[in-house]
Design brief:
This protein is α/β, with parallel strands linked by helices and about 240 residues long. The chain has a domain of about 140 residues: 3-Layer(aba) Sandwich (Rossmann fold), CATH 3.40.50. Helices cover about 30% and strands about 25% of the residues. The strands form 2 sheets. Strands 6-7-8-3-9-10 form a 6-stranded mixed β-sheet, covered by helices on one side. Strand 4 and strand 5 form a beta hairpin. The radius of gyration is 18 Å and the shape is globular. The mean pLDDT is about 90.
């Protein structure tokens, strides 16, 4: 079974030179397997965002080690980390690249899907389904340049789901998908993302944990629980 991301005794503090040091992550170790569906959850200030920033190289790793597809990112250059993350679509609260297009969402998505080699006859259905579960359907005829930041994040999520990249990480899921739509969203992933490795980061495990292969719970920087439901990816199994 291929390990996509491995953490070994990872700790992090934002105040390295202040004593006593307060670690926002403290000796965290776990593996995320390829083709599996993983949920990382915990309340605010549990260390989730710091964890993601360490994985994507936004923060420098000092204590412990992180490997992506078997290669360590500790001390790695930005160029090397970017190369390791080429297969990833990472949806964060503060995306570096902003989409500012003077076009309607529907037109933009049609163009996007054509460039990703979707057959022309399936494009309307694909757009309808993904916009429904991401709560963007009412914005299909709205120009993207007038999108609020929350709707832009949903667009990044849509692109991640529809792209050819193999790995998806979604931060702060509960701000993207309303609770009442979570189950539909998870069912969409089961039906349409069987060939992808998905990592969801959320404040809660409510509903989401019913659909994943592994649950990792962080609390005050500690990994307090790790639940593995099966050695067979859930996206390949019946519920």
């Amino acid at each position: 079974m291929k390990k996509l991301i491995s953490l070994n005794e990872v700790s992090y503090t934002y105040n390295e030179n202040v004593e006593p040091r307060k670690f926002v992550l403290n000796n965290v170790s776990f593996d995320i397997n390829e083709n599996f569906f993983t949920l990382i959850f915990g309340e605010n200030n549990s260390g989730k965002t710091t964890l993601l920033k360490l994985i994507n190289g936004e923060l420098n790793l000092i204590y412990g080690d992180i490997k992506i597809e078997g290669e360590s990112i500790k001390g790695a250059s930005r160029t090397k980390i970017n190369k390791l993350l080429q297969k990833f679509s990472i949806v964060t609260n503060n995306p570096i690249d902003q989409i500012i297009y003077d076009s309607k969402l529907k037109d933009y998505l049609e163009f996007y899907l054509q460039n990703h080699h979707y057959k022309k006859e399936v494009i309307p259905q694909v757009i309808d389904e993904v916009c429904k579960v991401t709560n963007l359907k009412s914005s299909l005829n709205k120009s993207i340049q007038y999108f609020k930041s929350s709707d832009l994040r949903k667009l990044y999520l849509v692109q991640a789901l529809l792209s050819s990249k193999k790995y998806i990480i979604v931060d702060d899921l509960q701000t993207l998908v309303p609770t009442k739509m979570i189950e539909d969203f998870m069912l969409y992933l089961k039906e349409n993302c069987k060939d992808k490795t998905i990592i969801l980061i959320s404040d809660t495990d409510e509903i989401i944990s019913d659909y994943v292969d592994k649950v990792l719970e962080l609390n005050d920087g500690l990994l307090v629980e790790e639940i593995i439901y099966s050695e067979v990816p859930r996206l390949e199994r019946d519920f």
